[in-house]
Design a protein that fits this description.
Blueprint: E1 12-21, E2 38-46, E3 49-55, E4 65-67, E5 73-75, E6 77-82, H1 100-114, H2 117-134, E7 136-144, H3 149-163, E8 169-175, H4 184-196, E9 200-203, H5 210-224, E10 228-232, H6 242-253, E11 259-263, H7 272-284, E12 287-291, H8 293-299, H9 316-321, E13 326-328, H10 345-356, H11 371-376, E14 393-395, H12 401-404, E15 413-416, E16 419-420
Parallel strand pairs: 1-4, 6-7, 7-8, 9-10, 10-11, 11-12, 12-13
Antiparallel strand pairs: 1-2, 2-3, 5-14, 14-15, 15-16
Helix pairs in contact: 2-3, 5-6, 6-7
Bound molecules: zinc ion.
The site of zinc ion (ZN) has 6 residues, from loops.
Length: 445
């Protein structure tokens, strides 16, 4: 917001006349005032924490307060599926036909040519600066972890995790194809993930040894007490049933730690009975689902000179109906898998609402970028608005969802522990000193 009120200089103040989605308030006694599920609330902030939450009362005039005039407040965002290590390589490694296969090839060449500690660090930190300025409080990133690269990316990740611990909670998931876990290197990778206290994961694909690979990765996770996070079925092949295979394996293993599965695109092109059976298994296995609408819309159904038809997202409404935890996240950002993005979870939510028709009704869909991903990441103190929690809040001038999702909300106020932060975004030129990020396309990969 252009004018930051002096009110934030006080250790104790009120945010009055706000709109807060009822699903983000732990106290369910508040009755929404709008058909969109927004409650009219006054919040008291004291010593950086939320100290009172009451229904708006205009008759009580506090000493220090800010009247939000109905502006919406969200808790800090939670971005549960990103690839910070790949981000911001577009200029040097664009995907010139926009397909998934070219993205894979382009990424491999970029990795071999450019991935040094300082390059990865600077690009990942650039992403964190954007995320922080937009109001994100926690991020899970997948890290490409084949061979010696695991040491490299995990070392950089660890440095950033420590450096940024006061600002953003960072979690990592190793990313390799599942066959890797049948090798000695794969077992060492599981050890490395355990040493770092992070999440075991990988890229599933249909192959004759999938059951064996899944059994092995579940065994490695059980032995090391690790959570799991998979990329599954990121395609439009009706025969791609990795999600159901993951769920079956989890049930067989009686796996108790949290499992998250991202993408699940092919579910949308499978027969109804297959979909119903898979959703049933996913619920039984207690798997959380992540949909990545922006990246899927970009990559899926891409063919040159052909108009795309399929949206690429998974069956989010059907999962929700069966009370399977559903979340939405950024995925890739300005890399060969997605040529755009700015690590802004509001953009993710906005696009998700439009692509997946989450607006009629809005119901509790805003939990998908706040409370639900926080819960799946084991973080019970963020992504919601509750007395006693840190006042990590995002204040919008928009009063209703249509206003919120129609403008970029670049004037949002981001509070961290009750104080406004600088929401200026890093300049792209910050990355110019890196290897050839400003090179001409003629020299690019
Ligand atoms: Zn991904």
């Amino acid at each position: 917001m252009s004018i930051i009120s002096d009110i934030f200089l006080n250790d104790r103040y009120w945010l009055k006349n706000t709109h807060i989605p009822s699903c983000l308030l732990d106290n369910r006694d508040f009755i929404p005032d709008t058909r969109e599920g927004l409650c009219q609330i006054d919040l008291e902030i004291a010593q950086g924490k939320i100290s009172s939450i009451i229904l708006s009362d205009s008759t009580v005039i506090e000493d220090s307060f800010m009247d939000l005039q109905g502006g919406i407040i969200f808790p800090g965002f939670v971005d549960i599926h990103t690839h910070l290590d790949k981000s911001h390589i577009w200029e040097r490694s664009p995907n010139l036909d926009g397909t998934f296969d070219t993205a894979m090839i382009t990424l491999r060449k970029d990795t071999e040519a450019f991935w040094r500690p300082e390059d990865i660090y600077a690009r990942m930190e650039f992403g964190l600066k954007c995320s922080y300025a937009h109001g994100t409080t926690a991020i899970r990133t997948h890290l490409d972890s084949f061979g010696e690269q695991a040491d490299l990316v995990f070392k950089v990740f660890k440095e950033l995790q420590t450096q940024w611990q006061e600002k953003i909670i960072l979690q990592a998931v190793c990313l390799v194809s599942l066959d890797y876990f049948l090798t000695d290197e794969g077992v060492s990778l599981a050890d490395k993930v355990a040493d770092h206290g992070e999440v075991l994961g990988g890229f599933t694909y249909m192959n004759p040894h999938l059951d064996k690979q899944l059994h092995q990765v579940f065994r490695l996770a059980e032995e090391r007490n690790l959570c799991l996070d998979f990329h599954v079925d990121e395609n439009n092949d009706p025969n791609s049933i990795c999600l159901s295979k993951v769920a079956e394996t989890a049930i067989k293993h009686k796996f108790v730690k949290q499992i998250v599965c991202g993408h699940c695109c092919s579910l949308a092109v499978q027969p109804q009975e297959v979909v119903s059976q898979t959703i049933k298994l996913v619920k039984q296995a207690n798997i959380g689902i992540v949909s990545l609408p922006m990246c899927n819309l970009y990559l899926q159904d891409r063919a040159s000179n052909t108009t795309p038809y399929w949206r690429g997202i998974t069956k989010v409404h059907e999962f929700k109906k069966q009370e399977v935890p559903i979340t939405f996240a950024s995925d890739n950002c300005r890399d060969p898998f997605f040529g755009f993005g700015d690590h802004d979870v509001l953009e993710v939510f906005k696009e998700s609402v439009r692509i997946a028709h989450l607006d009629i009704p809005y119901s509790d869909w805003c939990s998908t970028v706040t409370k639900t991903p926080a819960t799946l990441m084991g973080l019970s103190n963020i992504g919601r608005i509750s007395v006693g929690l840190d006042a990590d809040l995002i204040l919008f001038t928009a009063r209703y969802f249509s206003e919120l999702l129609s403008r970029p909300q670049s004037d949002r106020i981001v509070l961290r522990r009750g104080k406004p932060i600088n929401t200026n975004l890093p300049k792209y030129a910050e990355l110019d000193n890196l290897t050839l990020i400003n090179q001409k396309y003629s020299k690019s990969i």
